[in-house]
Design goal:
500 residues; alpha+beta; Thrombin, subunit H; Pdz3 Domain; 3 domains; seven-stranded antiparallel β-sheet; six-stranded antiparallel β-barrel; 14 helices; disordered N terminus; Pept_S1C_Do; Probable periplasmic serine endoprotease DegP-like; protease; repeat; serine protease
């Protein structure tokens, strides 16, 4: 080190022996500073000398899952050959040998998959991923001692990718418990155990790389990211903390090669445990339902709504038969707290609502026209709400008048415009007939045939209403205006556009 620094110093300016003394003194000072500046807890933490004791403690509860699906395969027909051709006997012998003759008896084909799981109840309750078992009609659970038991499905949930199985056993099984995944921090050690590539029980170690990852796999994405090696076959296996508690269920990997590149994802125990309890109790999920359609809040929308900073979930639609309607929630409200939990962005709300018990009355804090209000909502059941029809808009009909603003050419609703753009008979608002391709409105994917329902959270029915609201917002010193825009199917969304 001294020689390298010396070689880089200008000739005759610093002698090597003096530089050595200075460097040694500096290194000592830096080391002393680090030792005194770091918290004692940080200094005390170090990598485990071995994970062997932990692995030995929990491995007995980790199982391999073998799932087989029997499907009917279509028979191939023999090529149509002229009678007496030399190849007739050859083709017939070939296809019959492969079981693909012209018989009417349908053939069956078995599809197999391998994965991992773990026991959570000594009576024989096993947890794995839903995608491991799929539509299997023959499921076996293989234990670390080689014992193989048939399993039946207690319940499964595709939205969080979980399944609960039960095996019959004449003795208590080794089981593990869920831990507090919310207490995990990036940098904490974790241990993954599973059945990669069908090799059998394998142990890998790593750290928590991140929390709250959204990989667009479902509506409740909130994954733990880890660099512990997770490969095909690890799906459904447990992710342990250093106490031997399950803090995650290994579910997915991000990999261009199909193998581990140090980016694996696990469903947090805090998300999985309530779902598993519902599947055990009811054989299905019973998630809370609010009955609103939401969208995220960007900086421009936050400015237009007077929120200060981008936060919360913006209500873009309210189900007429949902719990939110009688509670007084309305389009344009921004939900910032739900049942005492902060809603930082729109992704938080579905997860919080779904985990709240059906029938519970909760406080919902919304920002409406710049002021916070609290509404009480009694939650319904999501599975019932999903069966209901979409929102419908009120009706109107006025003479046609056109005007331009914000790069948009607008017209009052008319029967001719309804026919031209395929708008519903009960659609209300101002029809957009042209969009300047160089405008911010075009960048926000507004297009002809869309309908402006509200401007600045006030209903509009004519182009004059639109321009009047825009002028009023400008006079308030606002930089953006918030439009509520509906497409031809009546689906609405908020769009913030600059008025400068």
């Amino acid at each position: 080190m001294t020689q390298a620094l010396s070689a880089l110093a200008p000739s005759g300016t610093v002698r090597p022996n003096r530089l050595s003394r200075r460097l040694a003194a500096s290194c000592f000072a830096v080391a002393a500073f680090v030792a005194t500046a770091l918290p004692m807890a940080a200094q005390a933490r170090s990598a485990p000398e071995s994970f062997a004791d932990l692995a030995e403690e929990v491995t007995g509860a980790v199982v391999n899952i073998s799932a087989s699906t029997t499907v009917e395969a279509k028979n191939r027909t023999l090529p149509q050959l002229p009678p007496g051709t030399p190849f007739e006997d050859l083709f017939e012998e070939f296809f019959n040998r492969r079981g693909q003759g012209n018989g009417d008896t349908p053939r069956q084909r078995r599809s197999n998959s391998l994965g991992s799981g773990f026991v959570i109840d000594p009576s024989g309750i096993v947890v794995t991923n839903n995608h491991v078992i799929g539509d299997a009609n023959d499921i076996s659970v293989i234990f670390s001692d080689g014992t193989r038991l048939k399993a039946e499905i207690v319940g499964k949930d595709s939205k969080v990718d979980l399944a609960v199985l039960k095996v019959k056993t004449d003795k208590p099984l080794k089981a593990v418990k869920f831990g507090d995944s919310d207490a995990l921090r990036p940098g904490d050690w974790v241990l993954a155990i599973g059945n990669p590539f069908g090799l059998g029980g394998s142990v890998t170690a790593g750290i928590v790389s991140a929390r709250g990852r959204n990989i667009d796999s479902g509506p409740y994405d909130n994954y733990i990211q880890t660099d512990a090696a997770i490969n095909k076959g690890n799906s459904g296996g447990p992710l342990f903390n250093m106490k031997g508690e399950v803090v995650g269920i290994n579910t997915a990997i991000l990999s261009p090669t199909g193998g581990s590149v140090g980016i694996g994802f696990a469903v947090p125990a805090s998300t999985a445990a309530p779902v598993i309890e519902q599947l055990r109790q009811y054989g299905e999920t019973r998630r809370g339902w609010l009955g609103v359609r939401i969208q995220s809040v960007d900086d421009a929308t936050a400015e237009a709504l007077g929120l200060g900073t981008a936060r919360g979930a913006l209500i873009a639609g309210v189900d007429e038969k949902g719990p939110a309607k009688p509670a007084g929630l309305d389009v344009g409200d921004v939900i910032v707290r739900f049942d005492g939990k902060e809603v930082k962005d729109s992704r938080d709300l579905p997860r919080i609502v779904a985990s709240t018990p059906v029938g519970k009355t909760v406080d919902v804090v919304v920002v409406r026209k710049g002021k916070e209000e609290t509404k009480k909502v009694t939650l319904g059941r999501l599975e019932d709400g999903e069966k209901q029809a979409n929102l419908q808009q009120p009706s109107t009909d006025t003479p046609t008048v056109t005007r331009q603003a914000l790069g948009l050419e607008m017209a009052t609703m008319s029967e001719d415009l309804r026919r031209r753009y395929g708008l519903k008979d009960d659609q209300k608002g101002v029809v957009i007939t042209r969009v300047d391709p160089n405008s911010a409105a075009a960048d926000k994917r507004i297009q002809p045939g869309d309908v402006i329902v509200e401007v600045g959270q006030e209903p509009v029915s004519s182009p004059a209403d639109v321009t009047k609201r825009i002028d009023a917002i400008k006079s308030q010193g606002r930089k953006s205006v918030l439009l509520l825009v509906a497409n031809s199917q009546g689906e609405v969304r908020f769009v913030a556009l600059s008025v400068e």
